[in-house]
Amino acid sequence: MLEHVELFFKSIFIDNMVFAVFLGMCSYLAVSKKVATAVGLGAAVIFVLAVTVPLNWLLDKYLLQDGALVWLGEEYADYNLSFLSFILFIATIATMVQLVEIVVEKFSPSLYNSLGIFLPLIAVNCAILGGSLFMQAREIETLGLAFNYGVSSGIGWFLAILAIAAIREKIRYSNVPAPLRGLGITFIITGLMGIGFQSFGGMLTGGDEAPAEKDTTVKNIEEKETIKKEIDENEISYNEAIKKN
Description:
mainly alpha; 2 domains; 66% helix; 245 residues
């Protein structure tokens, strides 16, 4: 359970898709002018990541890894289809994005129109593909952890675009210097938010480590002091003091 909690918070705050690895920046910058639009796209990204990361984990586990085809028989144990990772991952993502596009168009035409071209472009959003590739690179062990990672990565991206959209709506009425209006001030705010999110880096690292043993150098110094004291008090030779200690 602790492993799930740690992965959840780490993916949202520490390894945030936008502020830590700068993935999905195109949609993040283009669709963050209004909070309502940002919420819609963020929810779509959460859904796509929550579905595609576990599906791609299954593909990687039982099809793509070296020896993954052993379940078909011992003669397939030496097969390695990892060179197909990009093709299959993108195919899975494109399928899910098409499903999201159909559902949004059916139930929320206004959101579909406001998202415009950026909704189908989720298929080539590097944050979506990055989720599956990071899952593969980090060798996430179980399907449950893969689902957790997909959802938490999506939530992290959602929080990033929601925060910048809210700020951009506010600064629209502020006296921003002319050269910085638009993307200029957005990049500056994104950088400051990135620094803020990096401050969460230590929240999962304290309190669970066993006390470290004394440094070897310190031990050696203590031993030498003991030997010297023994020589001074008992007036014995150096070799005798070493044997005694």
